[in-house]
Write a structure and sequence with these properties.
By secondary structure, the chain is of the alpha/beta class. 43% of the residues lie in helices and 14% in strands.
Length: 170
């Protein structure tokens, strides 16, 4: 693991903020992304250092990328890889206490070049994971998204959520 990431995680582990996730099973789509992989490292290191006993279900499209990203943790019994496209219904036999949908194409160019894929990953992925969370009676569902969900705006002005809401409800 990168030295800077390791130092960040060591600092976060001393705070004790992860106690509420102890013993939970957390499904994370977009697990190969920088932000979510960082969070997964934090959860797995919390298991090692503080006995967190959190199971991480890392939903990834690419096994090769997952092996590169999580190679240090591949034998960790708390890490389970689910390799599939989030646009397809997600199946898992065990419990899922928390579901985090963070899958999305990375980078503004790829999102703009593949708008249909971006929309489907956001919309169908969310629908599939909400259905799974309902089936599993998950306690929490968290959606991470981007400004792309609001569509494009011709004037290219930086948007705030309140700007979008005003446009939708005026």
């Amino acid at each position: 693991m990168n030295r800077v990431i390791r130092e960040d995680i060591e600092g976060m582990l001393t705070r004790g903020d992860l106690d509420k996730l102890a013993g939970k099973s957390i499904l994370i789509s977009g697990a190969n992304s920088f932000l979510m992989s960082y969070f997964i490292y934090l959860l797995l290191e919390n298991n090692r250092e503080n006995g967190g006993n959190t199971t991480v279900l890392a939903l990834c499209r690419s096994r090769e990328n997952a092996q590169t990203r999580f190679g240090d943790y591949f034998k960790d019994p708390h890490l389970r890889l689910l390799i599939q496209d989030v646009r397809e219904p997600v199946r898992y036999d065990g419990a899922i206490d928390v579901c985090i949908h963070a899958a999305s194409p990375a980078g503004i160019q790829s999102r703009q070049k593949s708008r249909v894929d971006t929309f489907q990953i956001n919309q169908l992925g969310c629908q599939n994971l909400l259905e799974l969370a309902r089936e599993k009676r998950s306690q929490r569902f968290l959606l991470l998204s981007s400004v792309d969900v609001y569509g494009s705006f011709g004037d290219r002005k930086r948007r705030k959520e309140t700007d979008i809401l005003e446009k939708l409800y005026v």
